[in-house]
Amino acid sequence: MTQPEASAPSVAYAHPAVAVVSPHFCSPYPMDIAIVRKLLTITHGSFVVTDVNGNIILKVKGDHLLDTAGYPILTLRQKLMSAHERWQVFRGKSTKSRDLIFSTKRSSMVQFYTKLDVFLAHNTTEKVPDFKVKGSWSEKSCVIYAGDYSTIVAQMHKKRTVKSELLGKDHFMVTVNPGIDYAFIVALIVILDEINTASTPTVPT
C-alpha cells in the first residue's frame, strides 16, 4: 500500500484576539490596509492609514498615531543612546513608564535584513520577544510574527503606481490576520520605516 506523501510544514496564522493597543482595533476577519506615506509634506513621519475602500482609519503625524478625529492613540519615541535602536511606544500622548505598551529593538547590531524584537511592557526580563519583525527594505516587505517564527500576524509589501509616484506617495499594503490589533501593526511598520530611513546600508555578518 502506497504511503501518502508527507506535507510540507506550514506556518500558522494567529487567530485568537491579540489586543496590544485595544480590542477596538481587532477584526474577526483578515483585514487589508494601506499605509500611505506623504513624501512631499514637510511634516516628519506623515502617513495616513486607509482600508481597502480608501477610507482613512488612522493617521501618523510626527511621533503620534492618531485616530480619525486627531486624538492621539500612541506616542512613538526612539530611545537616545541605544546601541540597538530601541523604540518605546506609549499610550496616548504620555511618555511615562507606567503608560509604556511595548518596545522594540534590533535583534543584532549588524544586519542584512532588518530584524526587530518586540517586547510588551510586562515582559521586563526581555529574555524572549513577544513578537518579531523581519523585513527587507530593499524589497519593501516585512513579516510580523508572534513569539517565534512560526505564527504570522501580519505581512506587508510595497505597492507602486503611476498615480502614487506623481503624488509623491509610497503605499505599504498590509494584510492583518484575524484577531490582530491593526493599530499595533501600523506602529511597528512606522518604526521599521523610521529605522530604515535613518540608517545607512548594512552588510551581512
UniProtKB/TrEMBL annotation:
InterPro entries: LOR (IPR007612), LOR_sf (IPR038595), Tubby-like_C (IPR025659). Coiled coil: none annotated. Belongs to the LOR family. This is Protein LURP-one-related 15. It comes from Prunus persica (Peach).
